[in-house]
Queue: 4 jobs
Job 1
Amino acid sequence: MRQYDFDTLVDRSGTDCLKWDIKDGELPMWVADMDFPTAPEIREAIERRAQHGVFGYQIIPDAWYDAYITWWKTRHGMEIQKDWLVFTTGVIPAISSAVRKLTSPAEKVCLMTPVYNTFFNSIVNNGRVPFECPLSYDKDTGYSMDFDALEKALSDPQTSLLLLCNPQNPGGKIWNREELARVGELCKKYGVIVFADEIHCDLTAPGLSYTPFASVSETCRQISITAVSPTKTFNLAGIQTAAFFSANPVLRHKLWRQVNTDEVAEPNAFAVDATVAAFTKGAAWLDELREYLQENKNATVAYLKENLPQLSVVSTDATYLLWIDLSEILRQRADLINQKSDPDLQKSETQIPDARNFVRFLREKTGLFVMYGNVYGKGGDHFMRLNIACPKSMLEDGLARLKAGVEMYLSSESET
Ligand SMILES: Cc1ncc(COP(=O)(O)O)c(C=O)c1O
């Protein structure tokens, strides 16, 4: 018997939330926020703060540092020193500041793709160049790092920073100690700084944990900055609260200066209380959430296996985002179109289109709104990303729409 309720549908329409800014009848399963209210313990802390009624400038109290330090020690087995930690309003603001401070215009920032699309914005908006280093993909075993490609990217004299996503979004891969240690050694060899985005680290499958990059070796500790936050885990993205830490005083000082210059170093009136409540009182809620998410993942995989065997879900150990390989249906659709227009064309001559057309079709015909994989960089073209962090009844609705959408897409009558 669960203590917390994840089944009740909460109507988010009319709340000016990004995810539900959609047409009537549409179902959004795209952006990475959850359709669950945050933990009651966190709501209580926010309500207490709201009741106080005075919302002046805020400072960072010891309780904020203690909350991060204790959570990382007890949940992730890592000792973070108080003076390593710096408040920032978000992980992306910290990444953009790091790009500005730690690299020069026109230099390259390495990314292992497919990876969170906003990384590209932080690089390109600042006049730097993304250096995409695709992960190796195997339909049965999922993703792994391609160390030859990585070394090539890091050894480019113009590469000065690596944005590492640990665990990976999308794909849900938890990088292991050996992989992370190798990344650290290669980056050290070529003088590349590592920015480890660990925002998804608490959303691991039940029984699994992640390895903080900075905990792997002295090398990893010294060449890196890590960003963390309670916002993904506890569904608090709109509160805008995060932290970065680094054991390297020079890197830490540089980024601390830059987040201050960029004015993303000060908390709003709810940021501290929400964070402290999350990390001191949210563990039980989180563990039930992880079980619920796992049930949703299992249900999705089972549903697809039975109803849409042409789609394959990349095996995942973390995040609430399923990364689904569409190559088979994209190929079938392309064959269908080509055969119609030119019956003599050989199937082997068919080029598989990317996922954009299917994803647009799905939204238009069924209202299901998901992300197409192209936006996550090289290697993402034939995938879609599905957010399964919602009550089971909503998930069932989404899966039924997906099935209907695929059937229409593959019917010779349909037009796109
Ligand atoms: C890997 C990753 N980093 C950062 C963010 C956003 O972080 P923030 O809202 O703190 O800027 C997301 C949101 O989905 C994400 O997936």
Job 2
Amino acid sequence: MNGKREYGDYQTPEYFSLDVCQYLKRERQLTPSVIIEPTCGVGSFIKSSLIFDASEIIGIEINPEYCKTCKENIADSRVRILNTDFFSFNLKSLIKGKDQLLIVGNPPWVNNSTLSGFGSDNIPEKKNFKNLKGIDAITGASNFDICEYIILQLIDALHGTNSTIAMLCKTSVARNVFIEMKRTDTNLTSCDILEFNTKKVFGVSASACLLVITLSAEKTSADICNVYSFDRPSEVVSSFGYVNGTFYSDLSKNSPDFSGNCCFEWRQGVKHDCSKVMELSVEGTHFVKGLRESVDIEKNYVFPLVKSSMFKSPIISSFSKYVLVTQKKSTGKHIPHSDGFSQNMELFNLTQRAILKEEEFYLQKRTRFFYVWNRRLFLCKI
Ligand SMILES: C[S@@+](CC[C@H](N)C(=O)[O-])C[C@H]1O[C@@H](n2cnc3c(N)ncnc32)[C@H](O)[C@@H]1O
């Protein structure tokens, strides 16, 4: 176990959970009948949510010590703390027949790839919850934040009710959640992001926010997500969303020139899962990986690596990083199976050796590689 990191454990200071609850009560005029904190920790949000006139306040938490602290610190007959694992908990049966719920809290800040690295069991069973297809389902695209998974599970359970979900999360998670709600046609009245200073609140540098989603029992949808500052919740800072079915990441910047089909085929997530093996830089005429170790590799499978921050400049003309992109088909000659095997082995020889060197490292991290040679080099993490 890796303690705090495995459980994405950043307890919210009480002053901030109170600020959040006061905002929800005063500015959003919420009057919930039931409040649920899905990963309540030592109970900051449970305590702060006593300001609402709810008849029931339920906290779920995996850590028994935290549950004990919660019970000792909060003496109120409306509060119930359940020491259980959110991933195996039957949330739908807990909320059955209830409406006007408020789900408030701060789910774990960790992603499934980091947890796999620890060999952690604190991972939901259903990893491909966005129903990704093909290689996306088994490589980087299926890497996800545990926080995102929890919020999407909550949305799924509360679908068709007039409930509000108010969660602290990374801003990137909030955007993904909005996009996923649109993809799955979730009934929602509004989706807002209120950015706050994570350095001040949690002592860490990250772009994070309070995500407030108002679900609806009616067939309705919000196409735009407004972004505010938590300190000035009445002024829209920016917004993103859909206009005529097209997603715009910043609606204040009118940039229609960038919409349309790109002549390149883009692959996402490759670097993220296996960056220690796949990410390379160039020194002189050599590719160099991780700890400045020179790696001899065929150029056919190495492509420029473009990070999202690089899109700040309109033309990207140089690359400091490269990435080994595994292929479904080789660019070599297609040779019949029997003798083709040896020829292709030769073609990929250096690449193969470079990857095999890493195998032990990844096996230690409970990661396995498949190698399928003969017209294919295919590598994935499970
Ligand atoms: C980011 S902390 C936030 C705690 C609390 N919500 C707060 O705002 O102070 C995340 C919490 O999630 C708990 N947690 C992690 N995995 C969990 C799981 N599978 N089920 C329930 N709680 C979990 C951790 O123990 C930790 O207390």
Job 3
Amino acid sequence: MIVSPVFFLSLAAPALADDGTGNETCGTDLDTVPECVLDDDVLLPDLMTVVPKHLQIQNSQQNEMLRFSNGIANVGLGPWWLEPEFPGAESTVSCQGAWQVITGPEHFADRLLLSDGYTIPAPEGTYRHRCQKGSFDFHETHNHWHVDNIGEFKVCAAADFAADGSNCDPATTSSGEPTTGVKYTFCLIDWYKLADNTASSDDTRNFFECSSGMQGITPGWVDQYHQATDGQEIDITGIPAGSYVLVSSVNGGALAGDPLYEESDTSNNTSYMRFDLKRDSKGNAKIANESGACNDLAFVGALEATITAFSAQWEGGSASFAENMVDDMCGGKPANR
Ligand SMILES: [Cu+2]
């Protein structure tokens, strides 16, 4: 049967909209995403963010942009595996649906050999569920595909902020905008491996390109964007001097109790960097006194519990492995993607 992609598009693909920076964004209506009913024993990812680092203020066209690096880790038992609606269709559509592919234990006799399971589209029998989620969105300035509703960046006042990412009291820019609600899209790949320095040569690396096919993050791997990358920024123009927190969370509306993607634990999806914003006599802004989430006992306690559980599942509970992983999650690796 020949089915025109245009026909599918009218059924499934979200409408195009402009995100305000000239990039077309798919604008997934989260209310229309069907519920994904999962078997009890599936292998789910567990998504976390690496402590955001390399904070700097960029002055451009009267605006003050806070730039920073970001990382997303998968510390779960299953891959975060996303497939586009039309593999290889980059020249004909700029917005298409994204599916999350979910595996079961039977797909990985030895779960360390994950690369055995991944081709696109996922062949029948290599997964348990294929669930409609957000969208694949062609990002004009990056010139590759992003998945939408990956997470959110925001700046909160430090006073009431809690280590679980709650109680955000946003600052207000001089144009009256709150420093919250910066939803970001991302091209998801395996960039570096936690507690290790090997990368592209590693045989557990599964996701490595943004041009047309599947995207995702393998358990034990981190994806990353450098602070100079377009989109790694929040407009903080004119916010008053004071103590703030830059918050990075992953998985759509997880922070608000409404995660889009399937994962095993949505209580650990946020990390942050505290900083003071100073202004000199001319009003020029400067970042001072940076202090990462791992300096907060409540945060680091929860992180160590998650990592210890991951290490027990994958690395026989090696203490040095867990220690190196915690160091990476606290922002120990340089930003080089
Ligand atoms: Cu990109």
Job 4
Amino acid sequence: MTSIVRDQWYVAAYGREIGREPFGRTVCGESVLFWRTEAGRVTAMSDRCVHRRFPLSEPPSHLVGDTVVCGYHGFTYGADGVCVAVPGQTRVPRTARLKSYPVVEQDSFVWIFIGDPALADPARIPRAPWLDMPGWTAVSGMEPLAARASLLVDNLMDLSHETYLHGGYIGTPEVAETPITTEVDEEAGIVYVSRRMADAECPPFYARSTGIQGRITRWQDIEFTPPCLYKLHSRIAPVGVLPNGDGTDPDAFHVEVVYAITPETESSTHDFWAVARDFALDDEGVSDFLRESNRTVVLQDVAALDVLERVLTGEPDGYQELSINIDTGGLAARRMMARLAAGASGAGGAGAGAPGAGSSAAGASGAGAPGGGAPGAGRSGAGQRGGGSSEAGASGAAAVDVAAAR
Ligand code: FES
Ligand SMILES: [Fe+2]
């Protein structure tokens, strides 16, 4: 059974990757060809010629005007995927057309809808405006991950791992020590996890980019819109410096860390990452440092998750996990992903109520306190749906066994 939720928007590429050369990438198990028309519009269609399945992204396939010519025998397709010419005859078979996919270019990403095109509502694509917005500078990249997408979701929803896996880069002791709050907006289809450190060591990632000396107030507010777009709203300021009453925050540094989690296959993932900042906008040295540091951090995750994928593949079915408080965000994300997989629509899909993966641990999220002013309304504590009576955690009370969800 597939774990990939198809009727959703996924990031397929950065806009800068798609130009006047055929570009192939596998998304949700489908081989997709991308190219830009002469007017600059991104197209997406099957990357397999209908004749003998030669990949249209593979040389000597090539573009001629607003058509792509198969490099094997010359079948030629328009921007809508319809075949317009075949060799040796004037009649083009009526069925000679490539599957074409809805695409939207937005916030520097190319989004694709792999499932039923009738369900592809562009208004449901979540936004990451800082990646392509005046007043912000962004660096970005993509690393291939030889692990299922759900492992990356787990990883990003629980940042306590920064202390251990990313020590010396972004991790400090306070990250693992500070409790989180988790909230779920069922209507909007968003999971929030907030960790606010009032007095923390400043990790090199922020010390060198902001120039702050000494200890900091560090906020990590996660906003995940399953299945693909993850945003970490990061606020860094000298200890004691808080936003003004009117919401302005001139003395803090803001970093938006964005991930797009796109399944390539059942067991591999495109790990798109971006870091946008509202300071040192024109400082190439800061850009280079953040790009290199974040890529290093991403590759630390990739190495760990690649190992984990190999381990899990070798496990017998029905293995058990043990979840504690730090996992409430990840468990909430699993429940929402399971609901999407069960057929509820994404945003606006509240009420479907599929129990979902890992539901036996819903109580672990029982705390569910408000997220200290993170944006959004109408949210509920993540534990609410599951009873929410137990509060596992450092105190050792009521750690919860979770049936393996994958
Ligand atoms: S495989 Fe494409 S034209 Fe023959
Ligand atoms: Fe990480």
